[in-house]
Every structure is written in structure tokens, then in C-alpha cells.
Design goal:
single chain, AhpD-like
Length: about 180
């Protein structure tokens, strides 16, 4: 139940963004850039990082929404996402993704937990400096988004069809449409 009077017909972050449209566009542009913009990490891999971070932050909305997005974009689908969210160290992802998920976990706990060994391991597993940078930035940004959603008690539907509908919009048209701010 939201802590403020928001449009509960728009679940999760959608109701919050509708409540304060001024910050909505830049927040959605950030998500669009980080998760859909040009990158050597696939959109699915970036969404998987967000699902992992959201799990660690106990942000049910973001875990479900971004988990659904990752599942739609990655071979292995829901099973792969569930595996990463359950235990990323045993999940069937590449060694590079294991290292990037470890890095994301450290950033989620505290940026100061990132040390030269974590970065060196990511490089040993084939991560580029851009991928390391973007993993840290995605993680830090979604820690903010998670706290925004959880801190205001955003509505979190149980109905899987809600997330299926969001997948259709996000995968085909992106975050600006998803947030209702596309011109």
C-alpha cells in the first residue's frame, strides 16, 4: 500500500512517476540509456543485473518487473532469472556474468566494498572497463530506484499478467513509453 496518494492503477514505479512527472522523464531516460542503449552487454544481461540487485535490496516490484524483462530477453527465461536471484554463484551464466554479478552485489551492499580484486576478476573473465563501469552505474542507479519504490510503498501486484503486459511494452518500445512520458 503506497504511503502517499498515488494512482494505484499504475503499479510499482509507474504510480510514483505519475505523481511527480517532473523527475519522471530524467529517471526514465536514465533507465532507457542504461538498459537499452548501445552496450556490449545485452539488454537481457543488464536487466538480469537489475533483477539481482533488486533481489538483494528486497525490492519485490523491481525484482518482478526487471526479472520478467530479463526472462523475455534471455535464453533460459524465467528459470535462469530465478537461478540468478536464488544464488548467482551457482546460476548457469558465463564466468564474466558471474564476476559482474559479484561486482553488482558488492556495490549493492556498499560502493566501498568494490575492491581491486573484484575488478581484476571481472577483467580476467573478459569484462571490459566499459562493462565494469556500466555494471557499477546500473547497480548504483537501481539501488536508488529500489529505495524510491520501496520507500514510498509502491503497489506490487501479485498477478503475473501485469508483468507480462509490461514486458510487451518495455521490450518493444522502451522505458519512456512504459513510464508514460514518451512524446
Amino acid at each position: 500500500m503506497p504511503h502517499i496518494d498515488v494512482d494505484t492503477e499504475r503499479p510499482g514505479i509507474g504510480g510514483l512517476l505519475a505523481f511527480r512527472p517532473g523527475p519522471a522523464r530524467p529517471l526514465l531516460e536514465l533507465a532507457e540509456t542504461l538498459l537499452r542503449g548501445p552496450n556490449s552487454l545485452s539488454e537481457g544481461e543488464r536487466e538480469l543485473i537489475v533483477a539481482h540487485v533488486s533481489t538483494l535490496n528486497d525490492c519485490t516490484w523491481s525484482k518482478r518487473a526487471h526479472g520478467a524483462f530479463a526472462a523475455a530477453l534471455l535464453d533460459g527465461g524465467e528459470e535462469l532469472v530465478a537461478s540468478v536471484c536464488r544464488d548467482p554463484r551457482t546460476a548457469p551464466v558465463s564466468a564474466k556474468m558471474h564476476a559482474l554479478l559479484d561486482l553488482a552485489g558488492a556495490v549493492t551492499r556498499s560502493g566501498k566494498e568494490v575492491d581491486s580484486e573484484l575488478v581484476a576478476e571481472a577483467r580476467r573473465q573478459g569484462a571490459t572497463d566499459e562493462e565494469i563501469h556500466d555494471t557499477v552505474l546500473i547497480t548504483a542507479s537501481f539501488c536508488m530506484f529500489n529505495r524510491y519504490v520501496s520507500g514510498l510503498g509502491a503497489a506490487v501486484p501479485e498477478d503475473k499478467s501485469v508483468y507480462d503486459e509490461l514486458v510487451e511494452i518495455r521490450v518493444k518500445r522502451g522505458y519512456l513509453v512504459l513510464g508514460g512520458v514518451e512524446a
